[in-house]
Amino acid sequence: MSELTVLGIESTCDETAAAIVRGRTLVSNVVASSMEEHARYGGVIPEIASRAHAEAFVPVVSKALTDANMELSDVDAIAVSAGPGLAGCLAVGVSGAKALAWAANKPIYGINHVIGHIAVTQLQFGPFPKDTLALIVSGGHTSLLHVEDVARHVDVVGTTLDDAAGECFDKVARLLGFPYPGGPHIDRHGQLGDPHAIKVPQGLTRGKAGKDHPYDFSFSGVKTAVARWVEAQQAAGKEIPVDDVCASLADSVATVLSNKAMHGCEEYDSKTLIVGGGFSANSQLRAKLLEVGKEHGVEVRIPQIKLCTDNGAMVAMLGVNLVEAGVKPSSPDFPIDSAMPMNVISV
Ligand code: KG4
Ligand code: ZN
């Protein structure tokens, strides 16, 4: 059998993206972002993002097909993010994908964007080992997943009880005066600072809370501690050592994520850790995960930076997994689900 070819379409937030994946090969990958239009508001404005998706949809999908030297009739299936994400944004991508599937008479898969973030690692590292652990770190999600089969069975092992890591970074970044999204600014400044300059708490790691929540995360305390520290400095008329604040925050978050992920790998006897989501672009986290992975004999699979943030390749890759596994396509009237649970892989 020749390798399956899937067109993946993504519109959960501020990226309109489309890509073609054949087997485990990325054939084309096009991303249009409305990020700059949101920067002056300090966060994504759903109405602006939805309109940008409506404008970019046809050009982005056309370019993905042209770059691949293909026509719509050449793909075996279409996959589209059906959630989680902003409802208006999802509606644009899903409606467009349904129209394409109907016109070209192709099967369509409404997929879980979050699972796509981990599926994309297959483009670099090949198929998933059976029963592996995965760490999802995106703007809205921080969770440890047990992936028995990426097309059929995923369980949540632990999750954040409050803010996601990306959210925590974005909020502290705002406080420090960086534009949205703040994560990359904290990363850059963190590389210049002293990671031990400021004591930043590590949520749910010690005492009873740590025992009761071995795989859960909490980052709102981290955010508050940094905010208080910055306010106290300001009140005392002292200058804020921005690089040190960023480095200390990044070190605390990377350490908690890495240690909990390794603990999970031990418990689940997983020799591999799959990592995905926008926050996995973070350099402090990447370095820490590779370091602890080496210590624990765990192979850490982190996507290359351009595949960490939202893209169509992740959607297309998961689509290939679903078709290969013989999972039934979504019905033509499948709904979007802006709060799609993480154990739902496709609808
Ligand atoms: O996965 P993603 O692109 O969107 C969601 O599905 O949520 O993740 C976006 C998040 C934002 O919070 C952004 O600040 C963060 O990923 N991010 C980073 C870096 N690059 C993106 N956070 C820290 N360091 C980075 N280098
Ligand atoms: Zn994402």
Can you describe this structure?
- The chain has 347 residues and is α/β, with parallel strands linked by helices.
- The protein folds into two domains: 5-120 and 311-324, 2-Layer Sandwich (Nucleotidyltransferase, domain 5); 128-307, ATPase, nucleotide binding domain (Nucleotidyltransferase, domain 5).
- Helices cover 43% and strands 18% of the residues.
- It contains twelve helices and ten strands.
- The chain has helices at 35-39, 46-67, 87-104, 113-119, 122-125, 165-175, 183-190, 207-212, 220-235, 242-267, 283-296, 313-324; strands at residues 5-10, 15-22, 25-33, 77-83, 108-112, 132-137, 142-149, 153-159, 272-276, 299-301.
- The strands form two sheets. It has a five-stranded mixed sheet, sandwiched between helices.
- A hairpin with a 4-residue loop joins strand 1 and strand 2.
- The longest helix has 26 residues, at 242-267.
- It is globular, with a radius of gyration of 20 Å.
- The two termini are 26 Å apart.
- The mean pLDDT is 97.
- 5'-O-[(R)-(carboxyoxy)(hydroxy)phosphoryl]adenosine binds at residues 13, 138-140, 166, 169-170, 181-184, 187, 277-279, 281-282, 309-310.
- The site of zinc ion (ZN) has 6 residues, from helix 4.
